[in-house]
Specification:
6-stranded mixed sheet, mainly beta, about 0% helix
Length: about 120
């Protein structure tokens, strides 16, 4: 069954780093614009980073700019999110998905990966 699988989350202290990975069992992610979203408890899901299929240009939400970096691993067929200097407000479940030109998700959501930043 084709599906998105997010991994790499965990419990870290403020200022620490995590690297999330988005994998797909049946689709070549490099063909698509892929975004990382997050959803904190009681809040709407928000787009935090995006990498385009054409040329690999990136976008970041202001809240994560300079701290997060999205990239592709063509060999492993993943889209990764390096998260540095994590803050408590980064606590959320993180998801990835293919995006339309209007930043709307295209595929079914995976289960996500929990990131908890707490001292």
């Amino acid at each position: 069954q084709v599906q998105l699988v997010e991994s790499g989350g965990g419990l870290v202290q403020p200022g620490e780093s995590l690297r999330l990975s988005c994998a797909d069992s049946g689709r070549t992610l490099s063909r698509y614009t892929i975004g990382w979203f997050r959803q904190a408890a009681g809040k709407e899901r928000e787009l935090v980073a995006r990498i385009y299929s054409d040329g690999g240009a990136t976008y970041y939400a202001d809240s994560v700019k300079t701290r997060f970096a999205i990239s592709r691993d063509i060999v492993e067929n993943t889209v990764d999110l390096q998260m540095n200097n994590l803050k408590p407000e980064d606590t959320a479940v993180y998801f990835c998905n293919r995006l339309t030109v209007w930043n709307r998700p295209v595929w079914s959501w995976g289960q996500g990966t929990q990131v908890t930043v707490s001292s």
